Amino acid sequence: MIAPSSPAGAAVPGAVLRAPRYLIRVPALLWHALVHLPLTLLLLTPLTRRWRWGDEPFQHRVIRAWSAGLMRIFGFRLRRSGTPLKGATMFVANHVGWVDISMLHSQRMMGFVAKDEISRWPVVGWLASRGQTIYHRRGSTESLGGVLGEMVRRLQRGDSVGVFPEGGTRGGSELGPFHARIFTAAVEAGVPVQPVALIYGENGDAQQVVAFGKRESFAANFFRLLGEPTRTANVHFLEPIPAGTEDGRRRIAELSRTRILAAMGG
Predict the structure, then answer these.
(1) Which candidate, 112, 150, 179, 264, has a CA 20 to 30 Å from the CA of 31?
(2) How many domains is the chain built from?
(3) φ, ψ for residue 234 (rounded to 5)?
(4) Which one, of 33, 73, 39, 113, lies nearest residue 225 by Cα?
(5) Does residue 94 surpass a pLDDT of 70?
(6) What is the CATH number of the domain that holds 155?
(7) pLDDT (tens digit per residue) in 142-187
(8) Is residue 2 part of a domain?
(9) pLDDT for 17-65, tens place per residue?
(10) Boundaries of domain holding 171
(11) 3 state SS for the chain
């Protein structure tokens, strides 16, 4: 699933090329944050709430465009296979790093379930809140109960939600077990679940690059990724699991994990 690390000598030319990448990308990021972001917010008003762009709300298209631009500034060239379901859907994906949310938002609007620390991250946290994120306080049963209730309400009114059922990142080296309880919302709302595999680099050789390093802060990871080489980011929308699947949430969790693992190469 994970390609072998590059030889130690390969790090030298990579380090040399970081400087010109920062010279190009830092101004682009500032422009995206100081010019494109205010323009995006101007388009996310009650006046535009009812507008449509093709088969999706205009506001969703605006958020997708901004997220795709952010991914491009960080050097990711997006490739998509499969088609995200329309209508109320629970999307479940493997969790590599903070870029996962931007990657998915570039393809389909969904309100994510995320740890509450993200709400305090610079720029990304603020954007996550604007993107209908549902925050969960880790280790709190009461918080999880509230999250599940909010997920059911959103799904029942026709919105989509996105979750990372591993419950956290794992350094990009493995796919952890999927917690079955989070799938309760899909079962109670009677909506399909669509697994999504997120793969960075060719054959997943950049999973550990994108992931948080040991004791690496969000700011350190953010700045490091800004200097990384251009690489592909593959998002695979896999075969959906229909509502009413036998054996309920545990079976849905197992099927989701199996399909994502297969798409990642086992």
Answers:
(1) 112
(2) 1
(3) -100, 130
(4) 73
(5) yes
(6) 3.40.1130
(7) 566 778 888 999 999 999 999 999 988 888 889 999 999 999 999 9
(8) no
(9) 899 999 999 999 999 999 998 898 889 888 898 999 988 999 999 999 9
(10) 8-263
(11) CCCCCCCHHHHHHHHHHHHHHHHHHHHHHHHHHHHHHHHHHHCCCHHHCCCEECCEEHHHHHHHHHHHHHHHHCCEEEEEECCCCCCCCEEEECCCCCHHHHHHHCCCCCEEEEEHHHHHCCCHHHHHHHCCCEEECCCCHHHHHHHHHHHHHHHHCCCCEEECCCCCCCCCCCCCCCCHHHHHHHHHHCCCEEEEEEEECHHHCCHHHHCCCCCCCHHHHHHHHHCCCCEEEEEEECCCECCCCCCHHHHHHHHHHHHHHHHCCC
Mention every residue, 6+ apart, whose C-beta is less than 8 A from residue 172: 2, 96, 97, 200, 207, 208, 209, 210, 211
Q: Which two tokens stand for residue 185?
A: 């919302």
CB-CB neighbours of 96 under 10 Å: 27
For residue 121, give both structure tokens: 């991250």
Residue with tokens 């050097």: 75
108 belongs to a structural domain: yes
